[in-house]
Amino acid sequence: MTNPCPCGRDADYDQCCGRYIDTGAPAPDPETLMRSRYTAFTLRKHPYLIKTWHPKTCPDLQPGDLEGTQWQGLEVLRSKTGFKKGYVEFKARYVDDGEARELHEISRFQKIKNRWYYQDELEQWPGEA
Ligand SMILES: [Zn+2]
Questions:
Q1: Is 1 contained in some domain?
Q2: CA 63 – ligand 1 centroid, Å
Q3: Kind and range of the H or E element at 94?
Q4: What CATH number does residue 54 fall under?
Q5: Separation of 14 CA from ligand 1 center, angstroms?
Q6: Residue 64 lies in a domain
Q7: CA 10–ligand 1 middle distance (angstroms)
Q8: Contact, 105 vs 121, CB < 8 A?
Q9: I need a labelling partner for 86 at 20 to 30 A (CA). Which of 34, 79, 96, 121 fits?
């Protein structure tokens, strides 16, 4: 590999998340979208993050908001793809203000017109009490 993808898959960036971030191809499933969004955070690809955020929940994210955080690695714990909804549980390591931290999140995704979008964060995995 000449340019390993930041998302952690065993592939070059161009053959992995770069296909969605740079060419506009739709990510085929929630996990792939989630990985490409993580990669976009690491590479500060602001327009891609806006484009893949559900219009109803997309915040007023500014390019400057992506500065300062150094992403260190991604681990996908589980994922589930439904017809219109999808879920991904993951851990992402990062350094902020010189302090190592970990983000542990269950993300919910929604499919609109054949494209997956990041919708929001869930408290718990769907169907688990
Ligand atoms: Zn990737």
A1: no
A2: 21
A3: strand 85-96
A4: 3.10.450.50
A5: 8
A6: yes
A7: 8
A8: yes
A9: 96
